[in-house]
Amino acid sequence: MLIDNHNRVINYLRLAVTDRCNLRCNYCMPAEGIDFAKRDNLFTMEELCRLSTIMVAQGIDKIRLTGGEPFVRKDLMVLFRHLASLKGLKDISVTTNATLIGPYIDELKSLGIKNINVSLDAINREAFERITRRNQYETVYENVIKLISEGFNVRINCIALEGQNIEEIIPLVELTKYYPLSVRFLEEMPFNGGSKTFNKIKWDYKAIFNHIETHFNDIEKLTSEKTSTSINYKIKGHKGTFGLIPSFSRTFCGTCNRLRISATGDVITCLYGKPRMNIREILRSENSEEKVQEHILAAIGNRSKTGFEEQQKYDGVFNNSMTSIGG
Fold first, then answer.
1. Which fold does the domain 2-324 belong to in CATH?
2. Which of 28, 53, 223, 238 has the most C-beta neighbours closer than 10 Å?
3. Quick one: the chain helix, strand, coil %, rounded to 5?
């Protein structure tokens, strides 16, 4: 079991399989993209399988695959099959933009993988294409509907972007009336590949809720797990739910149970700081299992209590693109 220096149990790994993405969302990176990692600096699929086995042996029982866009890795299903075989791993999930997942839906279902997070910031075609800078609207919505119809637990993650998609909030909440999915609204974060800077936001989680409350009655606050990053609600008569994630306000830091490992091997103990170490070459060395475990324990034993505390240690941490750190 992994327990940090603040007595928090760390049982959730967000494992990035790539830093590449086939979209160019304007809040994530500049239109020309970023300097993506060279192939030799990325974990191979065999290394990702070995790393996940080591982490489960240390007490990780939930793994979410992230990117970039995970499905740009054409061999991604090799990792999903391996994860599905690991005893002790209770929850396997993925965060995706849903552009490339279509051909893999049937196998994901057969492997028992049920939890799919879809990054989707607009339900209107024009807004979608403006934000993503790509023409993938129909593909995304067809795949989302298929995932729902096949019984997956679909959570749509929408970042509230002032001046870009605030008018999309209510139509997205309307989806929960007809579909058994969760729509979650995230506060905007400064991880945008240097495309802009800001020290405050207008659309924090309270403002988002107030906006929703003016359009819907009978909103019930739901009981969430202690480690949940979202505050969850259900509107009477709706099949699904909606949630708010205070990613800028960071009200969830006190119960953080997460560890991140990037596609290049960076060990990130807090999203709001810089990597504690890199384990790529350690994993590639002799006696790698024991060495990786030792380094993970060292990283876990030196975590900041909150994201604000972590942020103070580093200059320029928000110049990174979210696609390079796994979300």
1. TIM Barrel (3.20.20)
2. 28
3. 35, 20, 45
